[in-house]
Design brief:
By secondary structure, the chain is α+β, with helices and mostly antiparallel strands. The chain is built from 3 helices and 15 strands. The strands form 4 sheets. Strands 8, 11, 12, 14 and 15 form a 5-stranded antiparallel sheet that branches. It has a 4-stranded antiparallel sheet with strand order 1-6-7-13, with no helix packed on it. Keywords: Signal.
Length: about 270
């Protein structure tokens, strides 16, 4: 298993809107009454141990479905200086991995590394171990509600909306936060240098946009976030999907997660 240490700043910013009625959307979804597991794979195209984990993540959505888990692939950037520049890598994903690793039994960040419900799962490749963790999470009643909607905008943009409702707190203070994510499926790279030189790598659920966490209201009222997302020139909007989750910034616990797979047609 390959690994390298990391430390990178968080870069993106996001704004919250008022709790308004949702606009008409091309597609939408609401979270179920039970907790959906958030599965995060930290990976890199420069890591020779990562392709099997990438393939494993690609199978999850069809094996378990969106009512059970939300799989996300976060490409870290600390491999980039070792011979191959991963075009999907973002410094903020290296920083997120570092933060999650600090909560785990071993603070060392490595690739491939898997977190389920923001808890490290070293035995992710063992089907019984993974399914046991998944069942533990899915058995829990949902403690937050999330609704997602998206529709095509002008060329090069995507309109996304997420509505969050977290439980009310007695003291008026809340450590709960929401995060909005845009991911892309069916990506492919021909690696010319580094540990995977000569390989053609295929990826799904690759995170393209990850909003910084924003605080949720402590009174339990719905909170709506609307974004007009600028799409990269190489992104394929017919392969994009939305995801969102609510977590407790104090404990690291995920209260709910949701994904909205590709359902927006090509640009007008």
């Amino acid at each position: 298993m390959s690994w390298h240490s990391l430390a990178s700043p968080l870069l993106l910013a996001v704004a919250c809107g008022a709790a308004d009625a949702a606009p008409a959307a091309a597609c939408q979804r609401s979270s179920p009454p039970h907790t959906v597991a958030l599965v995060e794979l930290f990976t890199s195209e420069g890591c020779s141990s990562c392709p099997p984990a990438d393939r494993w993540l690609s199978t999850l959505a069809t094996r378990y479905g969106s009512e059970q888990l939300v799989p996300l692939s976060l490409h870290v950037d600390y491999w980039n200086y070792l011979g191959w520049q991963d075009r999907f890598a973002q410094a903020q994903f290296s920083e997120r991995q570092r933060q999650l690793a600090q909560r785990s039994a071993s603070p060392v960040a490595y690739t491939p590394e898997v977190f389920v419900g923001m808890r490290e799962l070293r035995s992710w490749h063992d089907a019984a171990s993974f399914e046991q963790r998944l069942r533990q999470i899915n058995r829990q009643p949902a403690r937050a509600d999330i609704s997602l909607a998206m529709q095509g905008g002008e060329t090069g943009t995507l309109a996304a909306e997420a509505q969050f409702r977290a439980p009310a707190t007695e003291n008026g203070r809340n450590s709960l936060q929401g995060v909005l994510v845009l991911y892309e499926d069916r990506l492919e790279s021909s690696v010319r240098r580094g540990e995977n030189r000569g390989a053609t790598l295929r990826h799904d659920h690759v995170v393209r946009y990850w909003s910084p966490p924003f605080p949720l209201r402590p009174d339990g009222t719905p909170q709506t976030v609307r974004r007009t997302l600028e799409l990269g020139a190489e992104w394929n909007r017919t392969k994009l999907g939305l995801a969102a989750f609510v977590h407790d910034s104090r404990t690291g616990e995920v209260l709910q997660a949701i994904s909205l797979p590709v359902c927006v047609a090509a640009a007008r």
